[in-house]
Amino acid sequence: MGRKSVVACMVALTVVFLMFGGTSNQSSAQTSPVGIFETHGDVGTVLHPGSTEYDASKKTYKLTGSGNNMWFSEDDFQFAWKKMSGDVSLTADISFTTTTGNEHKKAVLMIRQNLDNDSVYADIARHGNGLTALQFRDEKGAVTREVVSNISAPRRLRITKRGDYVYMSLAEAGGNLQVAGGWIKIPLQGTFYVGIGVCSHDKDVSETAIFSNVNLATLAPASGKTTLYSSLSVVPISGPDVTVAYIAPELFEAPNWTRDGKAFIFNRRGHIIKLAVDGGKPETIDTGFATQCNNDHGISPDGTQLVISDQSQEKQDSLIYMLPLSGGTPERVTKNSPSYWHGWSPDGKTLAFVGERNNEFDIYSIPVTGGDETRLTTAKGLDDGPEYSPDGNYIYFNSVRTGLMQIWRMKPDGSGQEQLFNDEYNNWFPHISPDGKWMVFLSFDKSVEGHPANKDVVLRVWSMTDKKITVLAKLLGGQGTINVPSWSPDSKRLAFVSYQLIPNEDLTTK
User: Fold this and answer.
1) Mean pLDDT computed over every residue of the chain
2) The pLDDT of residue 27
3) What is the maximum alpha-carbon separation in the chain?
4) pLDDT for 9
5) Is the N end or the C end of the chain the one with fewer CB atoms within 10 Å?
6) Separation CA 123–CA 112 (nearest Å)
7) Which residues of the chain are modeled with pLDDT < 50?
8) Which residues contact 14 (CB under 8 A, 6 or more apart)?
9) Does the CA dihedral 75-77-83-85 come out positive or negative?
10) Residues 231 and 195 occupy one common structural domain
11) Residue pLDDT, tens place only, 381-407
């Protein structure tokens, strides 16, 4: 085929593609402004060109979009946008015009680096079935991740970018906007795109959503005064979808999962709190005189007893106590302090804990009935986070003895100490899944000393069979995130706490 024939063929194919409504990869942008937005167009590949209409009398936006999905490493949707920079927020009421179609069709508030279909972005996606999530892609071409809110079908939604972080606020019908989770680090650079979008989640059809009471704002610099929010969340071992179970403007830490799978246990303001997995109001467990419980607590293998580390007595150093899971008077286990519980042997007879003795933090074991403690580690430097394997053959722990904090294991008598792997992170708090197939742990940057709060950290999981490490979640956390065992009884999910530092001036409710 000659050169002229090739060119003619390519032109003909392009004409046919456009005749059938196809657009691909880059946005097919219109040039006229629509309301507060500069323009609109389709991003990615769609079979049916989308549209954006602005009703000036009602101040509403009607977006119709097609597209296979906004997920994985490619997004296909109709988008109306404005180029912006700095700190911004976008707020709107969202409703679909029909209840039919794919239940995962999406209407979104979005902040996007560019109009490539695999761009870095973050959005709040209101799905057709009511599910609402902060979705994000933190690297170009990477797989989309999400944080699912515990609020379904919210009336009003807001996405906020502050510095390198993005978070969502939602309002239920009749309620005010409340921080709903996220605080995800998204590397948006320079000028980016902020706007509204619709995806049908079905390449063969189009769907329409109405955006009303839309407010797009450039935010003034934050004053530096913030409110801490804690989010108790769950992530499946298969990843990457995080679901918020409970969020509140206060500090709470370290979730356990009860043996029957029905509740979480965590600490808040010195008390131990119980929260049903399927929601409800947190309840305080009666721990008697122990009113300064820290984040080292856990549940016995038979699910009846609670072990706590409390510092309300004597020198206010941490001591280990036992009491019924339903509440009661604590019985002291450790004679010496400070002592911080971390592990319970599968037979229920022995506790593993961290103790500071003579200015050295080491790992010890002690009978659950009390008595003499047995020192298991003697290396210089911090040893921490001991936890028994489900078969009782090993105690896993983290140690700084080789430089960075790394994951180790030893036999229950302290013999056979060995490092499992070595990498460029500081790795803390190994927790073995009940089925013995996985080990989750918390990773800090190598520059971070100790396990402080409010750091960018990564939850990673190590396969006990092929020794491969994968990322479960990236979050702001550290101290309080997974200090204690937090696997679901079926080994399919992990509970953890992440944190958000919301500027006080952002806490408007309208």
Assistant:
1) 94
2) 64
3) 93
4) 39
5) N
6) 8
7) 1-23
8) none
9) negative
10) no
11) 999 999 999 999 999 999 999 999 999
Question: How confident is the model over 373-383, as pLDDT tens digits?
Answer: 999 999 999 99
The CATH code of the domain that includes 101 is 2.60.120.200
What are the tens digits of pLDDT across the range 247-257?
999 999 999 99
pLDDT digits (tens, 9 = 90+) for 65-79: 999 999 999 999 999
CA distance 258 to 425: 30
- Which residue's entry shows tokens 């000659």? 2
| HEC string for 213-239 | EEEEEECCCCCCCEEEEEEEEEEECCC
- The residue type at 424: E
Burial-class residue 450 by CB neighbours within 10 Å (0-12, 13-18, 19+): middle
Q: Which two tokens stand for residue 206?
A: 């189009």
Q: Contact 179/70 with Cβ under 8 angstroms?
A: no
Q: Which element (helix H / strand E) includes 77?
A: strand 77-84
Domain co-membership, 205 together with 258: no
Q: How many angstroms separate the Cα of 368 from the Cα of each of 141, 257, 261, 305, 343?
A: 51, 20, 24, 11, 11
Residue 411 lies in a domain: yes
191 and 295 belong to one structural domain = no
What integer pLDDT is reported at residue 239 of this predicted model?
77
